[in-house]
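The methods section describes the discrete structure representation at length, but only in general terms. What matters is that the chain and its backbone geometry are given together, residue for residue. Nothing conveys this as quickly as seeing an actual entry. For illustration, here is how one protein appears when written out as sequence plus structure tokens:
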Amino acid sequence: MTLETPAPIDRVSMGPSEASLGVRALRTVRSTPPIFLILLALLLAIYSQAPTYNFVSIFKNGAALAILAAGELFVIVSGEFDLSVGSLITVVVTMSATIANGDPSSTPMVFAVMIVLGVVVGVVNGFIVTRLHVPSFVATLGMMLILVGAVNYITGGTPLGNLPANFRMFGRDAINNFPVLGTLPNSIVVLFVTGLLLYWLLQRSNFGKRIYAVGGNSRAADLAGIDVAGTKTLAFVVSALSAVVAGILLGGYAGVSVNVGNGYEFQAISAAVIGGAALTGGRGTVAAAIAGGLTMQALFALLNVLGYPPELRDTVEGVIVIGAVAYGSYQLRNAK
């Protein structure tokens, strides 16, 4: 009896290089944090509705929120919250206008004053939380009210003075004749530089390692010899300084207003959480937090392209805040 070998079935063969390329691509997609895919999906949705849309404006207008979210991330990773950043933005914008009053020569001094103010606010927040043992939600809420009250008292509810051109250049001007883009807004450059600095500080420095350790298990970190109080205080300082930078950008393209920072504290927390930060602490990356801020800006741009009224933005922000906090609470329950 003779066994016949069955004829081979014709099929499209895939070479080893093509197969490995497909596997690598699939692994890349799976390993990519969801927030980057969401951001890409929103940009594609905008393109499908308005192919000529100026996508650079999303990154320009979202730079302040992205930086603020990255700074807020330091506090969240340490296991705390900072609700004072929005009011600090308002202080930076209004007080800079009052001090400078349109004088370009005063800009370096104004920057120095705002940086010192940011450090002071961060240190005070950290002291109240770590030394007086006041919950960070309550402590920074109190700081928010203090800063808002101070601004309203000093200005009488009406902005005084104006910002000089060399102050506003960071948020308003752009680099001309830039390859491919044509013009590159200065705010994107500030976002890139600040993002790199914050990335190195949180994810490459010993300070960042201490923040992750404290947020993951503060008791274990203390037993390991880490200064928990000092680490959390420095996290609040970084958050406050990010608010100073965000305030400079917002003052540049939004102008002077006593309401310029309203709501940014909740947007920053939401952006960090939808970027993957855990409200339980100990987890989150700077790149994902920045992407979270840009995603929120892209969502608002999509609503505008679709013709929805600007008033809907507040509703969408509310939904995002609730969703982000609910997701964080879900993570907290699972962590127990």
Remarks:
- The domain at 55-335 is CATH 1.10.3470 (ABC transporter involved in vitamin B12 uptake, BtuC).
- The radius of gyration is 23 Å.
